[in-house]
Design brief:
elongated, mainly alpha
């Protein structure tokens, strides 16, 4: 079972990573324990990820507010989303693709193809397989979900450009590492079983932590 981030495990993670990786050690000393904590709003987290894809935090928040405005200024249940057409969702500022994606997520939930009440019992790979079946949800989105929503400590997001840029900067690499090179770095520097926390410190080093 995956370790979940809390006050105790984030301190353990900081100690493990500082001892295992001398390059991360000064970053850890500067920023202190990781502040990620899990929450249970799985559905809203995923829908919010779809809304915010490729947008600034400010733009995503604006569109989310307009989206909620279609439903009486509350975040809608999946059935309510399916009662709105793509054009109605686009009127709130969603692109045509995102409108279809958020409807597809709602349909998966209504059809019991995505079941949030059993995710805690699944492995990371099983969760990735289940959620990427939804249109518009890729591996990166699920990595962020596993980290910031479920609070799992052992998640590496090798495709994240921020993580790749941070590794290039911190480890004085000539080029931005590929996802495979990020995975190799994590293994070589013994980030497991706290890869999520290592990623958090990498983002911190750029002063650009996802929310």
């Amino acid at each position: 079972m995956s370790t979940i981030l809390n006050d105790q495990t984030t301190k353990q993670a900081a100690e493990h990573l500082a001892n295992a990786d001398p390059v991360l050690a000064p970053v850890i000393a500067r920023y202190g324990p990781c502040t990620i904590r899990p929450h249970r709003n799985y559905y809203q987290a995923l829908a919010g990820e779809i809304i915010g894809q490729q947008l600034s935090v400010k733009a995503a928040a604006s569109i989310r507010k307009r989206f909620e405005g279609l439903f009486g200024d509350i975040f809608p249940e999946p059935k309510a989303i399916l009662e709105k057409s793509v054009d109605e969702l686009r009127a709130a500022g969603l692109s045509g693709a995102k409108a279809k994606y958020i409807r597809d997520l709602a349909q998966h939930i209504v059809d019991d193809k995505v079941k949030f009440d059993h995710l805690d019992n699944l492995s990371n790979d099983e969760i990735i397989a289940e959620l990427t079946d939804v249109k518009g949800i890729g591996e990166w989105t699920v990595h962020m979900f596993l980290m910031f929503c479920m609070g799992r400590a052992d998640v590496l997001a090798p495709g994240d450009l921020g993580i790749r840029n941070a590794i290039k900067k911190l480890y004085n690499l000539k080029d931005v590492p590929s996802p495979d090179q990020v995975t190799a770095r994590a293994k070589r520097n013994h980030w497991r079983p706290y890869e999520t926390v290592a990623c958090w410190y990498l983002w911190q080093s750029l002063e650009n932590v996802p929310t």
